[in-house]
Write the structure tokens for this entry.
Amino acid sequence: MIIDYHEVHPSEAYLNVTVGIHFEDEPDSYYVIDLYAAEDGLVTDMLLLYNGFQCKYTFKSEEKQAITAYLNEQKLLTPYLHIPQELSGK
């Protein structure tokens, strides 16, 4: 998974971040991860979208780690974002 960009859409209740990605085995197909986080950094929802449609996809642990590492480097929230293990992205 290669991360291209991110956009932040803050609100009073939560933080919504969209992350543009593509996969190494599909270099010409661009996807968007739609992620929602609470003020404490807990990610409450994470969806994979293709052309605006939700994909049935389970994020691998290393993909979750890569996403949180990338977003935490951007210093979007203090404390850092963290994705619970049970959040699959389906």
